[in-house]
Amino acid sequence: MKIINQRVEHRRYGAGTVFALKGKKVYVAFGKLYGDMAFPYPGVFKEDMKLADPDMMEELLEDIG
Predict the structure, then answer these.
(1) Superkingdom, according to UniProt (predicted)?
(2) N or C, which end of the chain is more exposed by having fewer CB within 10 Å?
(3) Is the peptide bond before 42 cis (omega within 30 degrees of 0)?
(4) Architecture of the structural domain at 4-62
């Protein structure tokens, strides 16, 4: 699944955009307040972050188990 350029919502940092996925890290830009951050992939999507598109989020959860 391609999640690059997808909007996300993190429960602590708010809205952001995925800009890279390398190995077991997903990189998200949160703008001026928090900047760019890296999170463990796919773990962050199981609890702390979700894709803004609910259909894509459902598909992602199916893919990562």
Answers:
(1) Bacteria
(2) C
(3) yes
(4) Roll (2.30)
